[in-house]
Amino acid sequence: MEDLSKLSEEALRRRLQKFSTELEELEEEQGYVLRQSGLHLPGHVVKKFEADVSALKEALTALKGELKRRNLNPF
Questions:
Q1: Domain ranges within the chain, ordered by starting residue
Q2: Could you read off the pLDDT of 32-69 as tens digits, one per residue?
């Protein structure tokens, strides 16, 4: 991820909202796919879901940390 200290507050908040929405949608999709009975998912698909979720969570943590560093409420 790029240097967050160079982004404006507005840009940080937009990214925070975007990544939060993406994470929510990805977790919903993952839950739906994994609940399908009779559907075998290759291990790499499950690992991809996990990697994507992890990357989004890391990005969200970094964005919230930058907003907090600036003494701004991340929500």
A1: 9-69
A2: 888 887 778 888 988 999 999 999 999 999 999 999 99
Cα–Cα–Cα angle for 64, 66, 72, rounded to 5 degrees: 75
pTM, two decimals, is 0.85
Identity of the amino acid at 51: A
* C-alpha to C-alpha distance for 34 and 20, rounded to whole angstroms: 21
Residue-by-residue DSSP string for the chain? ---GGGS-HHHHHHHHHHHHHHHHHHHHHHHHHHH-TT----HHHHHHHHHHHHHHHHHHHHHHHHHHHTT----
Integer-rounded Cα radius of gyration of the chain = 15
